[in-house]
Design brief:
alpha/beta; 2 domains
Length: 312
């Protein structure tokens, strides 16, 4: 299967500053790929090269089978681009703005349906100047997808939205993936990447340091788990059972760090039942979150300081 997007050794230099230092990436058709990285890491530069807005200094790239530096109107009509802020025709309504953008494409979606999809059915006749920041963000998304693109670039799509609005945006993304569309997402919300992405890539200081599934990136699947519970009721003051794992107790709460959490919980459950507690109080089992892994990778690479001067 031909990749929807392919980059080989992509570089970008601004004078003495090398913003991208040989990025390699392939994204398959129908995949949701989240690009993560601290401010100034090179995300915006890389994405804008793929969108055809910036020329690369070296390397090769194809998007939907075309070099983005040579993309024509037919190629562009297959892309949907949702910028961090698109700007507005302030006196137009969402219906009017989206209908206007639909005229740019050969086979657009029904503009009214798109306005409904992004949750603006009750605001379709309001002037854009009167919308809240989150509602304007929804208009951004509607204008980016009304052309029924094959590949959609979403740059921080849920910035400024409340939790309900974010989840509605996620449902729009899921609807497009069900239709087989390919999506490239940049976000600072790690839960968003975990919810939506098939794979994530972490770019730091102009290099793509790792690519993997949200569950597996950075060795997350192999990371030690933490089993925690409270020493209350019949367990208060009782000596803990031997689990063979690192154990710490603080303020009446036990934390056990282990590679075998199921076995540890089994030992603890038998111990609790033997001491008259059929359930371990406030039991929780967790592994490092995607955010934990991401922050550790950024710290290890010393990529916290910006390189590009742009905001992503």
């Amino acid at each position: 299967m031909t990749p929807a997007l392919s980059a080989r050794g992509v570089r970008k230099r601004y004078g003495d500053l090398e913003a991208l230092r040989g990025v390699d990436l392939e994204i398959e058709p129908g995949e949701v790929f989240a690009l993560l990285g601290p401010n100034g890491a090179g995300k915006t530069t890389f994405v804008e090269i793929l969108e055809g807005f910036r020329a690369r200094s070296g390397g090769e790239a194809t998007v939907l089978g075309v070099d983005p530096e040579r993309g024509d109107l037919v190629w562009r009509s297959q892309l949907g681009i949702v910028l961090q802020s698109a700007g507005f025709f302030e006196q137009l309504t969402p219906d009017e703005a989206v209908a206007h953008f639909a005229t740019f494409y050969p086979n657009p979606l029904d503009p009214r349906r798109v306005v409904d999809m992004v949750g603006l059915a009750d605001k379709r006749s309001s002037r854009c100047k009167d919308l809240s920041g989150g509602q304007k963000r929804r208009v951004d998304l509607a204008m980016g997808i009304v052309g029924d693109p094959e590949l959609i670039f979403l740059d921080e799509p849920t910035t400024g939205l409340d939790p309900q609005g974010r989840r509605q945006m996620w449902e729009v993304v899921r609807e497009f993936t069900r239709l087989g569309k390919t999506i490239v997402l940049t976000t600072h919300y790690l839960d968003e990447a975990e919810q939506l992405a098939d794979r994530v890539g972490v770019i730091i200081a102009g290099q793509l340091v790792e690519v993997g599934t949200p569950r597996g990136i950075g060795g997350r699947e192999r990371a030690l788990a933490r089993v925690t519970f409270a020493l209350t009721g019949n367990l208060a003051g009782r000596p803990l059972p031997e689990t063979g794992a690192d154990t710490a107790t603080r303020d009446g709460r036990v934390t056990i760090t282990t590679a075998t959490p199921t076995a540890v919980v089994a030992v603890l459950a038998r111990w609790a039942e033997a001491n008259g507690e059929p359930e371990l109080p406030a039991l929780a089992v967790s592994r490092p979150s995607l955010e934990d892994i991401y922050l550790a990778m950024v710290e290890a690479a010393d990529g916290g300081e910006g390189r590009e001067g742009d905001d992503a």
